[in-house]
Specification:
The chain is an alpha/beta fold. The protein is about 20% helix and about 25% strand. It has a single domain, classed as Metallo-beta-lactamase, Chain A. It has eight helices and 18 strands. The strands form two sheets. The protein has a nine-stranded mixed beta sheet with strand order 6-5-4-3-2-1-16-17-18, with helices on one face. Strands 7, 8, 9, 10, 11, 12, 13, 14 and 15 form a nine-stranded mixed beta sheet that branches. The longest helix has 14 residues. The radius of gyration is 20 Å and the shape is globular. It binds zinc ion. The site of zinc ion has 6 residues, from helix 3. Zinc ion binds next to helix 3.
Length: about 350
């Protein structure tokens, strides 16, 4: 029977298996670089690690050799700190990068934002970036199997429903305990929710305590999610228990470095949520004990002198399940979407 006839009789019989939505957590040793590849092959990179060859090279390698990309279609820098925007200038020389998104340029530049890195970003983007605000969507242009949506729920210091310039500290709820106002660019991080069918993924950049609380009260703006990229590399200045409780993540992934992030209080907060034993880390935290680290099978890199192993998340074509893989450890675990 010829292939054309077979296809006419039972369409799908000779089609390839449906593709997954893949998310790669690339090791930048305490920076951030999260690469999303849709089933249609459209790609989005969130943050680009530190400046120099190391992180740009690592991102390019995962993009080209592991994900099979020839370009990165969209790039979001959650905020302007060196460990998030640092790699884009070099990366854009290594692989074409399409659309650029950020929370807006700052004038005058605050002391925690580096002018050279900002200039490198503007040069890479050809000064054609889009500033997003809470409530915006960033659209993927190619259709995927299940409905795919990326919604910004905070940016520039405002959460959905607030105007730009809203106060950072908004008293709310019976146990409200604010921290000192965070004047750094962390508080302006782009925070988004990616949904694919029933699957939900939260990436909050380096959002800090007061802003995190605003996401939960008076309204729970994110809702419960399946996977939480732990805020701010797992530092204790972020990851307010109210947010972790509101997100109720089944899986938490910490993009920490060997001596940055993955701190004990955050680890304890995560363990109290439903994330429990489903915590994954890019690095073992060398500064805390085994009890404050995920099981070795869930840690991509054990030593400081590492091979930059990544963590991969694959969401089934129908969005009903997802698999976390730590390739360097041979660890694979599948979860049902909530
Ligand atoms: Zn950071």
């Amino acid at each position: 029977m010829c292939a054309a006839l077979l296809y006419a009789l039972c369409p799908g019989a000779i089609q390839a298996a449906p593709k997954t939505l893949d998310i790669y957590f690339i090791d930048t040793e305490g920076g951030a670089a999260t690469l999303i590849v849709t089933p249609a092959g459209e790609s989005m990179l969130i943050d680009s690690g530190y400046p120099g060859e190391r992180d740009a090279g690592r991102i390019e390698r995962v993009a080209r050799e592991i994900a099979g990309l020839r370009q990165i279609d969209h790039y979001i820098t959650t905020h302007w700190h060196i460990d998030h925007v640092g790699g884009i200038g070099r990366l854009a020389q290594l692989i074409p990068v399409g659309n650029y998104y950020d929370h807006g340029f700052l004038d005058p530049l605050p002391p925690d934002v580096n002018k050279e890195l900002m200039d490198a970003y503007r040069q890479a983007s050809g000064d054609k970036s889009r500033a997003v605000k809470a409530g915006d969507e960033i659209k993927f242009s190619r259709r995927s199997g299940a409905p795919l949506r990326l919604r910004v729920i905070a940016a520039g210091g405002a959460v959905i429903g607030e105007k730009p310039g809203a106060p950072q500290i908004v008293p709310c709820g019976p146990d409200f305990k604010p921290e000192k106002e965070d004047t750094s660019d962390n508080a302006r991080s782009i925070v988004f929710l990616l949904t694919y069918g029933g699957f939900k993924f939260f990436d909050g950049g380096d959002l800090t305590w007061n802003m995190e609380h605003k996401l939960t009260c008076p309204k729970n703006l994110a809702g419960a999610v399946d996977v939480f990229q732990v805020n701010h590399h797992g530092l204790d200045s972020s990851n307010h228990p109210a947010l972790v409780t509101a997100l109720k993540p089944r899986v938490a992934i910490i993009n920490n470095g060997p001596r940055k992030g993955g701190q004990a209080r955050t680890f304890a907060t995560l363990k109290q949520s439903s994330a429990a034993e489903h915590i994954y880390q890019l690095h073992r935290n060398m500064q805390t004990t085994d009890a404050d680290n995920a099981p070795p099978s869930h840690i991509a890199n054990d030593a400081e002198d590492c091979k930059a192993e990544f963590i991969k998340l694959s969401v089934a074509a129908n969005g009903k399940s997802y698999t976390v893989t730590v390739p360097g450890k041979g660890t694979t675990r599948t979860y049902q979407t909530k």
